[in-house]
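Mods, move this if it's the wrong board.
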Amino acid sequence: MKKTLFMFILGTRPEIIKLSPLIRLCQNKRVPFKIIHSGQHYSYAMDRVFFSELKLPMPDYRLDIRSKAPHMQGEHTGRMLIEIEKILLKDMPKAVIVQGDTNTALAGAMTAEKISTTKSYTGFEIKVAHVEAGLRSYDRSMPEEINRFLVDHISDFLFVPTAIQKNIVLKEGVPSDNVFVTGNTIVDAVRANLALAGKKKAFLSKIGVKKGNFILLTLHRQENVDSEKTFRRICRGINLVTEKLGMSVVFPVHPRTEKKIRAFDIEFHNNVKVLRPLDFLTFLYAESTASLILTDSGGVQEEACMLKVPCVTLRDNTERPETIKVGANIISGRDPDEILKASLKMIEVRRDWPNPFGDGKASSRMLDILLRKA
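Not the wrong board. C-alpha cells:
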C-alpha cells in the first residue's frame, strides 16, 4: 500500500466544494491521499450529499465533532486537535491540506504544525497547505477572521486567489517563498458542475418561481443570526425588498439559522419561501438563475460574481473585495432601509463584469506545487 502523501482535512459544505477539484485531481493522477472529516457540518443536507454529487470518495476518518455552543470555540477546536493528532501521528502524511477559515481548518493546520515542532523526537514533519489563503475582513469579532489569520501564519504553502491576498500576507510578514497566486478552486468547481446543475431546473417550478424572476437569500453567520435584534433588522430589510420588487425570495435555511428562527419566533413576508438546505447542484442552479442574491456568505459572493448575478452582502465588510471592485457586489450592512437601497441599485446593474478569481486551473497549479515542493 502506498504511503499517504496528502491528508485533506475538511468539515463543512464550503470546504468539501472548494477542495473537491483538488481531491478529484489527486484521484485522477493516482496521488495517495486520505480525507479526515471533522463533523463540523453533520447533516445529510449539509454534508454527505456533496460527496455523492461531486463524486468524491467518502472520508477515511469521520470524527463527528460538533460544536456544543457558539461561545465554546476553544472547546470545539480543542477536541478536533486531539483526534486529528492521533490520525496524523499514525499516518504521517507529507502534507495536510486545509481550506478557508473554519475551526476545522485551524485545528488541522495547528495539529500538523505542532507535530512538526517535535521533529527531533519523531524524525518527522508535516507541511501545511492553506487553500484560499490571505483573505481578510479586518473584523476581529468574526471567528472566521481569527482562524484564517492564524492558519496563514503557520502554513508552508499559502494558495492565494489573487494578487490582492498575496500583498496582504506579504505585508503581514509571511515569507514570499510560501505564497503562490493560484486562482480560486471555486472557479474549477463551478465550471465542472454548471452543466450538471442545469438538470435541476424542475426545482424552480416545484417551489413556484420562474427563472430570472426571484431573489436568492442565504444567511448563517453568527454575528447576523445569533443576536435577535440584528436578525430582526435584517429580516425587516428582506421583507422590504420583496414588497418593493414584487419578487419571491428563495431562502434555503442553514441549520444554525433555522434554530434561531424558531427561538426568536421570526416571521417573514408571504413571498419569502423558507426551504431546507439545498444540495450543491440545486443551489448552483438557483444561483445561476436568480435575479439578485442577498447573502452573508463569502463563498456565495464569489459564486454570484462568477455567474454574473448581482449580489448584496448583508454585512459591514467583506473579505472578497474583488467582487466590489468589479461591480458585482455591494455591502449593505444590516439596516433595513440600506438593504432595500442596495438591492434596488444592484438589480439594475449591467452583468458585464469580469471574473476576478482565475481561469479554472487553480487545483492543477496547487497540485503541481505540492508535488514539487512538499
